Every structure is written in C-alpha cells, then in structure tokens.
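user: can you give me the structure for this one chain? tokens are fine.
assistant: on it. calling the predictor now.
[tool input]
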Amino acid sequence: MALSPALPTIAPAQRSDARAFAAYLVEHMAESGRQGVPHFAVTTSLVPEEVEQSALDRWSRALSEPLWGRAWLLRVSAPRTRIIGHIELRGGRVPSENHRAVVAMGILGPYTGQGHGRRLLETAIAWARDEAGLSYLDLGVFSNNERARRLYARMGFIPVGTREDAFRVDGVPLDDIQMTLALRPPGQRTTPVR
C-alpha cells in the first residue's frame, strides 16, 4: 500500500519564519502574469531583505497598533520543509479601522487548485472572528483572476466596488475588485485580543 503525501500544514507565522517567508514571497510574486497565470500582484520583483524586515515589523505590532499583521504559513515537509503558501491579515493605518483587516493570500502555482486556499481562509477567518474580535475582512482581487474571485465568493466575500484601471503591471491595465466579508452583524461590538 502506497502512502499518500502528507497534507501541507498551516501554522501561525513566527518571527523566526521571516527570512523563509521572504524567499517564498519573492518566488511567488515572480509567478504573477507568467506562463498563463493571471496577474495577481502589483509587482513581480521584490527585495528579500525588505520583505523580511517589513514582515518582522508587522508581526511584532499589537492588534491595537496601526499596521499590525498576523500571518499563517502553508508548508510541505517533503522533499524538504518549505513554505508554499500564506495568508496574512493586516490592520489599518488609524485606530478607527481596528475593527477591520485586509487579507493578502498566495499559493505557489504547483500547489493551487487543491483546496489549500480554502483552508488558509478558514484559518484566518476563524482567528479574526473568534480571537481578534474583528468585524470585517476586506480584500482586493484583480478582475482577471477568476479562480481567486470564485473562491472568495464561496467563502462569503461580497463585491463592494471596482476600481477600473487601478494598476498597470507589465503594461497591462488591471481592474481591482474590492470585496468584504462581514464576520458579525453590523454594530455588534467585540473586544479584540490585544
């Protein structure tokens, strides 16, 4: 009987993950708009050291601070342990946005279409609602990224507007669809974990 490969694991990002996260993100962003993959990133080239430092800065902030971040990493262990995907929630710039977070998510091409995006979203949504006490999650998705748009809609995100020609990546104009997920009825107050 052949053993099936282990399901990739999802775990909260730690400060010690920042360098590996940066390497993964550089690899992932380079896939955007290449070899039939739709554009999903506003840039395809990143500086690993800047990505690492930025992640460390976000992950070190309390939820009550502007520009906090919390991430979960999707990892495989064979043939070697490595990050193959992520989801990150980021807080706003001002305290009056503390009831919301912005979602950023990605998975390396060879691992897409296997249910990992749903697993990552379920993990982040549960944390945002049950532990952080957030009311809404927001995201932007390019109109040409139909697979991601379908996933977000299945998870309950509602389109709330479109910014036409929001970005031009590699000379390609991209519309950005804004989507929101309500985690609790409007006006219901919670006390977020700090």
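assistant: here you go. Strands lie at 9-12, 69-76, 82-90, 100-107, 136-142, 158-169, 172-182. The two ends are 48 Å apart (CA to CA).
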